[in-house]
Amino acid sequence: MAAWVRCSRGRLVYTGRITRGPFAAWTQTPEGREAVEQVASRIRFSFLGKTRAAAGRLWRQLAATAGDPAVVDAVEREVQAYLQRLGQLAFAEGLPRCGVDLRRLIVVPTVLLNGAACTALAKRLDRRPAWVSLEGGDTLRDFFITTLVNDMAAAVERARPAPRGPLTADGDWTTVGLDTAFVWRVPVFQAPPWNGHHYVLELPRDQITRAVQKTVAVKIGGFETSLPFLSRAERHEILRRALDAQKS
Question: Other CB atoms closer than 10 Å to residue 104's CB: what's the count?
């Protein structure tokens, strides 16, 4: 299935179009079925059946909205900002960290990154008329935003950031590793789990040497050994402190 977002030469890129597969899957969820039925209730008659006609109408509206120039511009800006947020989140209080050759190596949970991306994307899109007038309402808009952010995360995962092949976050930070399995929280009902975390390294003025790459790999191994011993309460506290720091 074609991705909505891909990674090209170390940068995330919005393809400018969406595929129907994720939408079709969403229409089978409780939230999707409810949204489709609401639209179907406003259709007086259809040879194809009201539910099928309603799903088709929502898809056409969503696809048209996703291709609206103002919406495309908003999405592209947030896609490009996705990894940059790692540099901002690295300063959050309480995140696990260590030193590598006078540089900081910080663990940034993916749930913090994706949550911030969803919030920023929603705020930017809410200023676009085509987006606000989308018939599916908040349920369809939430699906679109969540799918986009999931695709951003998947594109980064496919790029496989590593000490010898990092992905630049911003001018001061780079992601040198990605864990996709570590459980930081028990998600609320129907919320994405967004497990895992980035290993974010402070960039030196000079290139990262092989010696630093080896040290980073060792430090990441240390985190992978120690982090599983964090209790659920400790993991919750780390996320709480980081979120509080974002709000202040």
Answer: 15
pLDDT for the residue 244: 85
Residue spans of alpha helices (H) in 8-82: 20-26, 30-40, 50-66, 69-81
Alpha carbons 87 and 161: distance in angstroms, whole number: 15
Helix (H) or strand (E) holding 10: none
Average pLDDT over residues 212-225: 96
Interstrand relation of 173-179 and 197-202 (parallel, antiparallel or unpaired): antiparallel
**Which amino acid type is present at position 83?**
L
Q: Which helix (H) or strand (E) holds 134?
A: none
Q: What is the Cα–Cα distance from 163 to 161, expressed in whole angstroms?
A: 7
pLDDT at 189: 64
Using only C-alpha atoms, the chain has a radius of gyration, in whole angstroms, of 20
User: What pLDDT does residue 247 have?
Assistant: 72
- State the Cα–Cα distance between residues 144 and 150, nearest whole angstrom: 10
Average pLDDT over residues 121-147: 93
Residue entry with tokens 């940068």: 11
* Tokens 């663990």 sit on residue: 107
Residue 212 C-beta-side C-alpha neighbours within 13 Å: 20
Separation CA 203–CA 160 (nearest Å): 18
